[in-house]
Each structure stands twice: as C-alpha cells, then as structure tokens.
Amino acid sequence: MTGARADGGVPDPAEDGESISRLLRAWRMRVDARTVPELRGVHPRPGRLLSQRHVARLTGVSEGWYRALEAGRRQDFSESFLLRVAAALRLSEAETLTLFLAVCGRRPPGSPCPAGELPQGVRNLLVQQTSYPAYLSDNAWNIVASNHLMGEWFPWVLRPGANLMRWALLHPEAREQMLDWEDSCARVYLAMLRVAANSNPGDGGLRALVREVLDSDADCRRIWAEEHDVVEHRDGHVFRLRLPYHDRAEIRVTSHVLLPIQRPDLRFVFITPLPD
Prior knowledge:
- The chain has 13 helices and 5 strands.
- By secondary structure, the protein is α+β, with helices and mostly antiparallel strands.
- It has 2 domains: 13-104, lambda repressor-like DNA-binding domains (434 Repressor (Amino-terminal Domain), Orthogonal Bundle); 120-273, Beta-Lactamase (2-Layer Sandwich).
- It is elongated, with a radius of gyration of 26 Å.
C-alpha cells in the first residue's frame, strides 16, 4: 500500500508504483460490472463496482496476485496475464502500452498498430520527398511504396513483389551496381537477416526469405557460415554505387532509416549522396 514517506515527502511513483496503481484503480472503477458477460450468474450478484476479486476471476489468477499488481508491488507478471488484465479492464491501445511499460518496461507483444493502408501523412511525406530517393519497406523488406526518384535510381522497386533482400543478395544487377558487393552489401544484409530471424522466430515470411537466400546463392551460404555479425539496420551505412541513372559514374551514398510513429512496423528509408 502506498502513502507518504516517513519524512513527510511524496512517494516517488517510479519507486513504489503509485502511478500505475492509481491508473489501475481508475480503469477498474470505470467498468460497470453489470456489463461484463463473464460475471453473469456470479453470486452474490455484482453491483456496478468491478472489484479486485472480479478482475482476478476474469484473468484467471488469485485475488492476491491481482492485488499485488494494483498495489504496484514488483512481481514476475507474465505478458499473457497483463494482456488479460487489459482485456478485463477494457483498456485502449495507449492504456495497454502504459500498463506494460510501467510493469515490465517493454511494449505489449505483437504489432503496436494494425497493418493496413498507409496513413495519408506518411504517404504525403514519401511523395513530397523530391530531392532524394525514398521508400517504405515492411519487416521482411518488401517494398510497400516508393517515391518517383527511387524508381528512377532503382527501377527494380517498381517490379511486382519487389523485395530489397532478394534484389540485393540474389539479383545479378545488384552485384554490378553495388560496388564491393560482398563486403559492403552482402555481409551487412545477411547480418540484418540474422537479427530479424532471431527477433521474430514466429514470422514464417522472414524464415522463408532467409531460406530462399541461402538456398539460392552459394556466396550467401558461405558468408552466412563464416560470419557471426549482427546488424539491426543500415542507418548511416555508406554504399558505393554505379547506376545507369548516373551514366554508371561511381557515387557514394548513405542511407537513413526512420520509423513512422503511425506505422512502426514499416521502415522509412531515404538515400542521400555524399560529397566527392
């Protein structure tokens, strides 16, 4: 139970969990127990107040276990339990995020926002980027959208089913256009695939992509077996390119990787040339 410190000061919410305790109580109190189907037939019949005992019943734990959560006491609360609490208290996406961050310091499992059409703001930002090539890709590096300049520099993004990893690691033109292909491209991209494959073990699409790359190319298999490096993203990575768009003159570029707050399941990447 929280309260004033012995010295008369106000308790630190970060230390004793007072903040999440107060929020949990408020969220519970706003739920009318009479509207919860799972509590129909419970004796004694619940009134309007949703009690801690009711929430414990709805989430399949003891009343003491739920009480520990609401009191802000540190326990080994599982993600599945916190998700059941969120459902029982009818929490919004932002409220569920707050619960997870306060209790275990991480986001809820799964995508933080549903996939679907691109938010208009993100689409506008991409289209209106006229100075540099830019594109959006998903977690498996499928090209979701690209601007006009990206299509001119890299026409492969306009092909059906365009995928950065398939093009960069498996397409012959990538080895002509990306100089120092093995060291500057293949080793970096395979290190990124290694991170993705281990961070999303349940993603069948990612597993299939890794398998396709390794099954299709002997160089990639050799590098995969030799290397143990891991790379999360290519932000700030420098490439040397020789593209038809630039009459095959060598240029140096760097990539910038951003996560749109409305669709953090996507990567917003734009490419800027470096001075000679």
